[in-house]
């Protein structure tokens, strides 16, 4: 019977992935608890189970003292040395006992505790399994949708997707196969609880790792991701090999690789940009698809002004400021978008306001004098006046004034 017991433990270990040694230790503790419950907590016992044949032994443990005060937990040195002369004061005396009335009640208690320990061990195995898979992408099937919660079956557990982790605009239907990001695993009295997400930027990162071999192999690194789930995502990538185009590797031939990710995210737009050590270039790339004329960074405050053509202004800002907001999250810089005209006007205004008013008047006077001199230089004399001195009198042919006609009386 004991040999069958050991074989049963082998089956449990194989089917439920519970370590056999851990299970035997739990059973030993369960039998010890059942013994104390029936014979009193005052008894100090040790239970051992043979790992090969399954034999169970019960040992009474007593402290060796000079004069015992409690016969249940203490024994005199003289009596102990009758068994083994090597015992000394303070040692633990071990003697095998065979309780006559261990029987049905003790066995029932032991059974219940064993079942409980098995369940706990199984829960620990599941918890540790999912804890190792945290921050990974799991493929699951939606089992039910209740009160805004989406319950997804992922392996042995039913994971929960809270409303805050659901992508706006996505429709979740029962039996729908879906990929989710394992957000968190925690222990509860009912077993491990797993929370998953469809909005976390890590979902995009893991999808790129599965679709782009260069990222999986470490040839291309994802430096940063900024995401507004369901709408748009920006991904900054860097190549560790100068011969590799990181953006091209992520996009794939004819955009196949990135398109697979877009399809999984239900049409969410993805901008793949090249990371650069040059701040101006990096910020300019981050504002893609807008074309930036110039970037003026402030390293101390980590702020920058991006100047774009007038017709590119709305594209650079994006709908409701989305493009510049995602670029700021991606780079960690505060970005101010200005059109060329607005920036020039603002620059001139700031420049004049910073100057002394007298200097401004002198500057304006000089500009007017330059304009007058330029006008004088550009004026051309008629040919008949060309070459005459400035003060030379010119005789006109009919210099005498005509007489006024007399009025008839």
Question: Short summary of the structure?
Answer:
The chain is built from 13 helices and 15 strands. The protein is of the alpha+beta class and 409 residues long.
How would you characterize this protein structure?
The protein has 409 residues and is of the alpha+beta class. The protein has four domains: 2-129, NusA, N-terminal domain (N Utilization Substance Protein A, Chain:P, domain 4), CATH 3.30.1480; 133-197, Beta Barrel (OB fold (Dihydrolipoamide Acetyltransferase, E2P)), CATH 2.40.50; 210-273, GMP Synthetase, Chain A, domain 3 (2-Layer Sandwich); 276-367, K homology (KH) domain (GMP Synthetase, Chain A, domain 3), CATH 3.30.300. Helices cover 40% and strands 26% of the residues. It is built from 13 helices and 15 strands. It has helices at residues 2-16, 20-39, 77-83, 103-132, 201-211, 213-216, 246-251, 256-264, 279-286, 313-317, 322-331, 340-354, 357-378, and strands spanning 45-49, 56-65, 74-76, 92-97, 137-146, 149-154, 157-161, 177-188, 191-197, 220-228, 232-239, 269-274, 292-298, 303-308, 334-339. The strands form four sheets. Strands 7-6-5-8-9 form a five-stranded antiparallel beta sheet. Strands 1, 2, 3 and 4 form a four-stranded mixed beta sheet that branches. Strand 1 and strand 2 (56-65) form a beta hairpin. Helix 2 (20-39) packs antiparallel against helix 4 and helix 5 packs antiparallel against helix 8 (256-264). It starts with a helix and ends in a 31-residue tail after the last helix. Residues 367-409 are annotated as: Disordered. Pfam families: KH_NusA_1st, KH_NusA_2nd, NusA_N, S1. Residues 367-376 have a biased composition (Basic and acidic residues).
């Amino acid at each position: 019977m004991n040999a069958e017991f050991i074989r049963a433990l082998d089956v449990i270990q194989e089917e439920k992935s519970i370590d056999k040694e851990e299970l035997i230790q739990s059973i030993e503790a369960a039998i010890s608890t059942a013994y104390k419950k029936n014979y009193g907590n005052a008894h100090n016992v040790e239970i051992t189970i043979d790992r090969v044949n399954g034999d169970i032994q019960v040992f009474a443990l007593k402290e060796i003292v000079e004069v015992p005060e409690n016969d249940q937990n203490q024994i005199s040195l003289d009596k102990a040395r009758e068994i083994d002369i090597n015992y000394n004061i303070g040692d633990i005396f071990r003697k095998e006992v065979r309780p006559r009335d261990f029987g049905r009640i003790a066995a029932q208690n032991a059974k219940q505790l064993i079942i409980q320990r098995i369940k706990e061990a199984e829960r620990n195995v599941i918890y540790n399994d999912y804890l190792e898979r945290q921050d990974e992408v799991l493929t699951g099937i939606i089992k039910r949708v209740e009160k805004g919660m989406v319950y997804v079956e992922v392996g042995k557990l039913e994971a929960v997707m809270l409303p805050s982790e659901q992508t706006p605009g996505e429709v979740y239907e029962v039996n729908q196969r879906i990929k989710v990001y394992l957000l968190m695993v925690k222990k509860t009295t009912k077993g491990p609880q797993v929370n998953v997400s469809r909005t976390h930027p890590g979902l995009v990162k893991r999808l790129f790792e599965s679709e782009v071999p260069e990222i999986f192999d470490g040839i291309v690194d994802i430096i940063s991701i900024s995401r507004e789930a369901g709408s748009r995502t920006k991904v900054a990538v860097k190549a560790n090999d100068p011969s590799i185009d990181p953006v091209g590797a992520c996009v794939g031939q004819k955009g196949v690789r990135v398109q697979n990710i877009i399809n999984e995210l239900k049409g969410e737009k993805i901008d793949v940009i090249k990371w650069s050590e040059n701040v101006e270039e990096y910020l300019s790339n981050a504002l893609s698809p807008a074309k930036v004329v110039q970037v003026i960074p402030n390293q101390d405050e980590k702020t920058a002004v991006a100047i774009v053509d007038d017709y590119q202004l709305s594209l650079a800002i994006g709908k409701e400021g989305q493009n510049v907001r995602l670029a700021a999250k991606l780079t960690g810089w505060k970005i101010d978008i200005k059109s060329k005209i607005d920036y020039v006007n603002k620059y001139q205004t700031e420049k004049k306001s910073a100057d002394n008013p007298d200097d401004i008047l002198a500057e304006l006077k000089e500009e007017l004098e330059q304009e007058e001199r330029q006008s004088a230089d550009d004026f051309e004399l008629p040919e008949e006046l060309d070459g005459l001195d400035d003060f030379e009198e010119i005789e006109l042919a009919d210099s005498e004034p005509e007489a006024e006609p007399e009025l008839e009386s």
